[in-house]
Design goal:
about 325 residues; alpha/beta; Rossmann fold; seven-stranded parallel beta sheet; two-stranded parallel sheet; 13 strands; binds nicotinamide-adenine-dinucleotide; binds uridine-5'-diphosphate
């Protein structure tokens, strides 16, 4: 696919990544520093970990700032780009921290936009497929307004992100900041917190430990899983575009949760059984992005096959658990 002309980020650029010590943020920081960008990673560590950016510590291009974005952001300008990812993201985390999640989306996003306004930076909001809620349109194009229960337990995340989008769009309309919104779909890979309850780390950890895989409901609900390197490439291309979005970033290869469980058992060689647990309230039945806009505007689509991404994730989780020896060799 021929890529449209996009700005790239490299030597001389100054970029802030909020939530940079989290799963996706740390991969972004790695990529930006590798490309020669001066990076400030701002993170409160509420769900992230310093270990995720340990490989960057000491690099003159990298500064870690431990701070809650709700308390204001103090990074010296001028800045070229702010990538605003700071927010709890896994259902387990945001249900445990409902108020902090709403604050991150409201006060935190305000602070990040104000920093962009002060420093002249372009601003990318890491929004989410959760703005579509339990979608009534499938697959989900960016023009779909969503089906969100505004007072259900998941609303602390969904509505925080919807508010973040509204705020971002208003700063743009008011001529205050050059903004763009990414709607990220389920992303997986090494550095997901093993205990964050999301389906990939949960299934892989259970399979490697010989525990039953906890399939929610009958497991017929679907997700479309994108490997983190591909998501990072999509986010950087979107930041380098002139568009304002929203643009879906994710994979459009849809899988049921039961199919995912079978794949994880295959890759780990595990004899774990499946146990069906209660479906969480308002758990979306189906999820798959319409990627037409990302193809056209960014010349982007994910490249890593799910199986390959899962193999890399299994190897990383096995290392973390000290269980690398139990994984069967994969055919070349
Ligand atoms: P994560 O929990 O690993 O990372 C989030 C990071 O933000 C953590 O390091 C956390 O400590 C930090 N953080 C949270 N609140 C903060 C605050 N108030 N101040 C400073 N730091 C704060 O989650 P992730 O999967 O890496 O998600 C990153 C972003 O991408 C989130 O905004 C999330 O909504 C979005 N997203 C992720 C996915 C996905 O599948 N991973 C899908 C859709 C959207
Ligand atoms: N899920 C599951 N078992 C688990 C964790 C999650 O079956 O141990 C299901 C969950 O109910 C949802 C899907 O897997 O239907 C994806 O869940 P995840 O928390 O990873 O992401 P999200 O619901 O935010 O898409």
């Amino acid at each position: 696919m021929s890529a449209p002309a996009l700005r790239t980020w490299g030597r001389g650029d100054r970029v802030v990544v909020t939530g940079g010590a989290g799963f996706v943020g740390s991969w972004l920081c790695d990529r930006l520093v590798a490309d020669g960008v001066r990076v400030w990673c701002v993170d409160s560590l509420i769900t992230g970990s310093r270990a995720n950016v340990a490989g960057l510590e000491g690099d003159p291009l990298f500064t870690f700032v431990e701070a809650d974005v709700c308390d204001g952001l103090d990074v010296p300008g001028p800045l070229d780009l702010i990538m605003h990812l700071a927010s709890p993201a896994s259902p387990l985390h945001y249900l445990r921290e409902p108020l902090a999640t709403l604050q991150a989306g409201s006060r935190g996003t305000t602070q990040a936009l104000d920093l962009a306004a002060r420093t002249g930076a372009r601003f990318l909001l890491a929004s989410t497929s959760e703005v579509y809620g339990d979608p009534l349109v499938h697959p989900q194009p960016e023009t779909y307004w969503g089906n969100v229960n505004p007072i259900g337990p998941r609303s602390v995340y969904d509505e925080a992100k919807r508010f973040s989008e509204a705020l971002t769009a208003a700063y743009r309309r008011e001529g205050l900041v050059d903004t763009v919104i990414a709607r990220i779909f389920n992303t997986f890979g090494p550095r997901m917190a093993l205990d964050d309850g999301r389906v990939v780390p949960a299934f892989v950890t259970q399979a490697l430990s010989g525990d039953p895989l906890t399939v929610a409901g009958d497991g017929s609900q679907t997700r479309s899983l994108c490997f983190v390197e591909d998501t990072v490439e999509g986010l950087l291309r979107l930041a380098g575009s002139e568009g304002s979005g929203p643009v879906n970033i994710g994979s459009d290869l849809e899988t049921t949760i039961c199919e995912l469980a079978a794949l994880v058992l295959d890759l780990t060689g595990s004899a774990s059984s499946l146990v069906h647990v209660e479906l969480p309230e308002d758990d979306p039945r189906l999820r798959r992005p319409d990627l037409a806009r990302a193809h056209t505007l960014l010349g982007w689509s994910p490249r890593t096959p799910v199986r390959e991404g899962l193999e890399r994730t299994v190897r990383w989780i096995a290392d973390e658990l000290g269980l690398a020896a139990v994984i069967p060799a994969q055919p070349a």
